[in-house]
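Table S5 (text form). Sequence records supplied for joint modeling of the two-component complex.
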Amino acid sequence: MEKLLEIFRSKNAMGFSLRFAASLLVFWVAYQGYLHYTHANGELDWVTYQVSALSHGMATFLGVANCQFSCFIDGCYVGREGKMVNVLEGCNGLKLGIVYAAYLIATVGMNKRLVIQLVIGLILIQLFNVVRIGILVALRDLGGDSYFFFIKHIFGVSIYLSIIVLWLINPIIDKMFSHATD
Amino acid sequence: MKTKYLYTMAGVLFALALAADSPGGWSTGTKSKGMNGWFYNHEMHARKTMLLQNTTPPDPPPGVPLDGGLIGLIAAGGAVGYRKYKAKNNAE
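The corresponding structure-token record, covering 274 residues in total, follows.
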């Protein structure tokens, strides 16, 4: 057990892998527990609801006329009647946020800089997601094949790539924060 | 005379009751129970099917999932971190 803790704390590849896996597991279990709790209470989870509500606002801002918004236990419908999109739990971007946060915890470690980076990163991911769903609602309203092209290729690739870029530039951001806090 | 009418009526009612309770639709050749098949033809069946199809709730709208490549992202995170720490250890 002590040896495991030693590896866990060590600043090498093995230690990183262990911290990354452990953080993922802790966040995953907590999130699944929260989902289980909300479903048991017959409610939709708060994140999916907020993302849907903000996406509805974004779609209205983008000019979708008569944009409606209704929520059920498994998700929300956003868009014009007959041309809606279904915002389910898997669309709320929180799972991506969990992977992003687990990486940061494994590399930066638990400190003040991590909290600031986490908050900014998670807000960026959710902002991107809200803009993405808003544009998808607008594209579905316009009709044509562009909706399927954007959902399949453009948005998926760009959000995953942006998270990897955030990880890669993490040392630069970390340095900036350490200069600012010193 | 009255009793004759009464017997005839009773006979007809008894026959109808038997027909209503019969297991197969002997009069129409359908497999429905009793008299159900008497008032049920192919045209009505087609109309009922059409009505059912029209009243079936529509499919839910398409979803906008984002967690399709989650395993890939976890693998990428592991690879980026592993590479980073390995390079760091080699430098030391």
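Note: The first helix of chain B runs from residue 2 to 21.
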